[in-house]
TrEMBL record:
PANTHER family (UniProt xref): PA-PL1 PHOSPHOLIPASE FAMILY, PHOSPHOLIPASE DDHD2
Name of protein: DDHD domain containing 2
Annotated region described as Disordered, given as residue ranges: 1-24, 580-608
Annotated ranges, domain DDHD: 465-670
Stretches with biased composition (Acidic residues): 584-594
InterPro entries assigned to the protein according to its UniProt record, in alphabetical order: DDHD_dom (IPR004177), PA-PLA1 (IPR058055), SAM (IPR001660), SAM/pointed_sf (IPR013761), WWE_dom (IPR004170), WWE_SEC23-DDH2 (IPR057825)
Family assignment from sequence similarity: Belongs to the PA-PLA1 family.
Gene Ontology terms for molecular function: metal ion binding; phospholipase activity; triacylglycerol lipase activity
Amino acid sequence: MSSVQSQQEQLSQSDPSPSPNSCSSFELIDMDAGSLYEPVSPHWFYCKIVDSKETWIPFNSEDSQQLEEAYSSGKDCNGRIVPTDGGRYDVHLGERMRYAVYWDELASEVRRCTWFYKGDKDNKYVPYSESFSQVLEETYMLAVTLDEWKKKLESPNREIIILHNPKLMVHYQPVAGSDEWGSTPTEQGRPRTVKRGVENISVDIHCVNDFRSVSLNLLQTHFKKAQENQQIGRVEFLPVNWHSPLHSTGVDVDLQRITLPSINRLRHFTNDTILDVFFYNSPTYCQTIVDTVASEMNRIYTLFLQRNPDFKGGVSIAGHSLGSLILFDILTNQKDSLGDIDSEKDSLNIVMDQGDIPSLEEDLKKLHLFEFFDVFKKEKVDKEALALCTDRDLQEMGIPLGPRKKILNYFSTRKNSVGINRPTPQSASGANIAKESEFCSRSNTRNDDYLDVGIGQVSVKYPRLIYKPEIFFAFGSPIGMFLTVRGLKRIDPNYRFPTCKGFFNIYHPFDPVAYRIEPMVVPGVEFEPMLIPHHKGRKRMHLELREGLTRMSMDLKNNLLGSLRMAWKSFTRAPYPALQASETAEETEAEPESTSEKPSDINTEETSVTVKEEVLPINVGMLNGGQRIDYVLQEKPIESFNEYLFALQSHLCYWESEDTVLLVLKEIYQTQGIFLDQPLQ
């Protein structure tokens, strides 16, 4: 959306001063009769539907040049595909359509543009069709060559275009209902400006609020040396869409019918967020969600490698809001290597994976109940489904009392033997997440190599990712809250994801959905999260001012308390016995010097403690390889005036935040030994 707006601003800017040597710009040059005609330079655009309106956005110069070269190659355009936008979109040249490669998106029309007219209300330029642009160009060529102007043309929409002279070309819309007999259009209404060419329009400006574009800008400012030395390439960001398939079930429509009409924006946010939470806590939808997310991640990774066979970089993943929780659960249930799967036959995950008909057949043979196999097969009951059956379910299938008791006792015994919670293999660090107040509890399995995760989510099969992520970034994440609600009170400091080395929990201080992680690793210590530096260095000015005022007020408070303490002592000394007069006198003589120092001593102690808290390293476990986990953004000055007003906006700020993007880039490039040009303070 913001990308469209950015490009529209470029298209609607005031007319720049023309170059005396250019005749293919938007501003036409006043030419002498007999001047030589120069063809217009085309540029390629694509159409986006924004708020039910068509908006034409230019391709960047590189993509437009590639499209033009393919168009001018003389080869048949049908079946010709040109990758654009870094390979994220393919343009089918013959169809003049643009298709997303990695995600589902409505195809958009593509046009080779040379002539434009200004819109009626929004003052944005709209390209004419390719066929009519060719007619305009031929008319313009004759007018320039013969120096004969006042040319009038009628567009396919019965609109009038008049070429008065090279600097004045106008477009008239037909007046609706002006003539019942269908007479020819007339020059009525407010004329619109007609433009030729795009040379003076910047087409390399991307959306400044887009995560990908922000990263490209930060590469130029913070990793310039590495780029000049060709040590790094850009970071590609590919979205994983799981929300749309989930919400295609019709539940959204049912929910909308019962939603109150007031505070629309807040209610839409609540419906969109809370509904996903309910979905994820449902056994039916939870399996659908994790399957969709994992399969999309694997599909996008495979497709990217197919389109970029020379790629040798790493892969990191990021999740926002509930998406971060989904990734957390998926990563927690990964296997460290392919060999682990073969050696983990006693894990409940593996038991569920083997829940097919042959496994059920073997169990029934073991119980001497194979005669009922056809009954279960008819009812499409596999091993997993049979484990969920009650006595009444079996009775309705016609299973006698004795066999029913055997089956129920068999599955009940197996459930108790592997523990109610899903066990996972021991990680490389030999530890896992602890349940409730237990630091690290083993499940009651016969295999002592497994630890009980005990995080209380519904029982599902977690798919396996076909790659090992380098880093997991969580934006505005409720992971801490969900783990706490599931009964988890502490995370083992030695726990780490089986296949992912890094984990960063990034949040805005006013984000109502975000929760911390580090207090669950070190519950007995209070400490602040890591403050993310501003991308231009230092803290924001209002934060430094606030800290300065806080220190000043503490100094005043300590001095005032010291003075009150001395005054109180002087009042309480009067009734002392005369016996202590000499002792009191000694105190009085010694106190003026000491009291003048006490406030500063207290302040010094508090300051030193503060410094120590900032300097001394805090052990937050191995979830992020020994590094800090919680990172908080600095709020903007306007946000500090009313944190409630900006609460919802802060939950969506991460995709536009330069500070967030810079932290992501810094951590990703550090895995390759590349560092910032200048460290941020």
